[in-house]
Amino acid sequence: xxxxxxxxxxxxxxxxxxxxxxxxxxxxxxxxxxxxxxxxxxxxxxxxxxxxxxxxxxxxxxxx
Length: 64
What we know:
- The radius of gyration is 12 Å and the shape is globular.
- It has helices spanning 3-17, 51-54, and strands at 20-23, 30-35, 41-44.
- The longest helix is centred in the first third of the chain and has 15 residues, at 3-17.
- It has a three-stranded antiparallel beta sheet, covered by helices on one side.
- It is of the alpha+beta class and 64 residues long.
- The protein starts with a helix and ends in a 10-residue tail after the last helix.
């Protein structure tokens, strides 16, 4: 299977399950907000990883 096909399927999946799609407030990367079973929203990127893993500004989102 080609990488582009996998990426296209990942984007379709995110579009189906995400409650919202918007840019990150800090780095402007496109993110999809997905609600977990615990009721909390989490940001995901097109590579299906949590955006906090690779956002250069993730520390700014952490509660103190």
